[in-house]
Each structure stands twice: as structure tokens, then as C-alpha cells.
Amino acid sequence: MPRPLFIDTDTASDDAVALIIALTHPDIDVVGISVVAGNVPLDMAVQNALYTRDLCASTVAVHAGEAGPIARPLETGQHVHGHDGMGDLGLELTGRAPSGTHAVDALLAAADAHAGQLELVTLGPLSNIARALQRDPALPDRIARMVIMGAVADHIGNQNPVAEFNMWVDPEAVDVVLNSGLAVEFVGWDISRHYAVIEPDEAAELRGLGTALAEFGVDIQRCVSEFCHTETKLAGFDLPDPIAMCYAIDPAVATETRRLNCRVETTSELTRGMVVMDQLGFTGLEPNAVVVTAADRARFLEMLRSALATTP
Ligand code: BDR
Ligand code: CA
Q1: Percent of the chain clearing pLDDT 70 (strictly above)
Q2: What's the predicted TM-score (pTM) here?
Q3: Ligand 1 atom at minimum distance from 244 CA
Q4: What gap in Å lies between CA 48 and CA 272, rounded to an integer?
Q5: How many CA within 13 A on the CB side of residue 234?
Q6: Lower CB count within 10 Å: N or C terminus of the chain?
């Protein structure tokens, strides 16, 4: 039986590849997609999710959610992923209609329908999840696990010196999640930087698979490639959300994990959004998260290749 999975996404270029991986995987039943503002404003992220879903020939419902963080204004990542979030290629990213059900209602309903079985993967800021927890503090009892693309176990950030973008956008939401009792598992940007950088020859090989999904999945990384070259100094473009999705689907993608106490910085401007991972046990607090600390790059690339090779 395919496993029920609910995806929360601020759909831009790497989110789209993560959606493709989940929507084409035989072991996974994507029971809902909720969208949150983050990389791009909400309406754009919704259109990007719908475009990607249609390309995968899926009919899963896409639900619009929160248009901004729970306690501060939205700051997007359009300088990273392009104005439209999808590499500014001129794709037709308008006119598709999401479900009439709000993301928070959809997540709560999916948790009821698949109580104890539902796996949640978040690829953006945690605003929708925090709102769902505020509405229903018993939600964690019905969610089997929550894989978060976010944070950095080595505390080298991509948004400020110590914080990762998704956690930085809405740190108050991260705080709600970390104090909720949800069984969270972090796949941080350090894992992307070390194991999910696609170098130009690998990108060419992937694009050469010749399918519509492969061409789309590589071409939409155009702006992020420039950002990686000039800002994060990577040898290609990295795919944080896809490696998080691959781990969610196949935990063997992680070669090392640790159980750690994690708390988030919400007040300091200098370290805003830093998820402080107590690696040496200074705080004496109980672990509240699993943190992936090493991954299997070959296994990830194999999953990526087989998803992009699919013709839906
Ligand atoms: C994360 O932030 C976004 O830019 C990406 O989509 C990914 O979810 C990486 O820090
Ligand atoms: Ca994302």
C-alpha cells in the first residue's frame, strides 16, 4: 500500500523537483499539497505548484494557505529563484485554480483521514503548520512523522551567517512546531550543500534524459544556479527540497542521524531563525528532533534520475 504523504511547499524551483519526486514515486500516495508564502508570494507559489502538478499528470488537490509569517512581514527569496520562482523562463504560470479548501483545513482533514499514518513533508516556512497546531494542538497525535527541509546542523546559514531561509522567514512558526510534540526530522541546508549539489555535467546528463520532467526540472534552476555561483559559492545548483523529499520517502538516504534538542532564535536580529542544536548536551533538555547529519549522494541522485526520467 502506498504511504499517505502530505506536502507543504512555498513552490519555487527546488520545491518543484521535490514535488516531481513524490508525485512519481510508486510507494507514495500524495494526499494533499498545501502552499505557503516564502520563496515567492503565495499566489505565485500556488501557480507554481499547480503547474508542476499538471506536468506530473496528477490530480491531487493544491490548497492555498498563509500569505505570510505568523508574527512578522513576509520577505521572499525572489533574488534566489527568480521573480516567478521558476527561473524566469517565461513559463505560463497563471490561470490555474487551487482547491477552495484552505491549507490548514486540508491538513487537519488529511490527518483525520489517515490518523497515525500520515507523513508530513515541509519544504517552506512553517506558517501553515503553526496555524494548524494553533487550531488543533492535538494534531501531533495523528501525524506519524514530519520531515522538515530547514535549519543547518553545522550552523552555516544561507540567509544570514547561521540561519537557513525557511527557518529565518518565520521563526515564530518554528518555535510553535518545536514545542508541539510533533515528531520532527530535520534535513538541513548543510545536507544539501554537501550531498545535493548538481554540477554542470550532471545537470546536462539529467537534462539529456529527454523527458519533459527532466528538461523542466533542470531548466527552472537557472536563477538559483547564478545565486549558487555568486553567493553560496557552490559548484553547481543545489537541491535542498529534493534531498529532503528523498529522505522522507527512503530514510536510507540518511547515513547518519542524531537525536538532539533543538530550539529556534526569534528575538535576535543577528541570529534570527537559527535553529540551535544542542550537540554536546549543554542544556540538559530532552531531544525533540531527529537531525540528519550525513547522506548518501549516490542514492539521492538515483532517486532524482528515476523521477525525472518518468513520462507521466
Ligand atoms: C530552502 O529555502 C528555499 O529557498 C528552498 O526552496 C528551500 O526550501 C533552502 O534554504
Ligand atoms: Ca522550498
Answers
A1: 100
A2: 0.98
A3: 8
A4: 28
A5: 24
A6: N
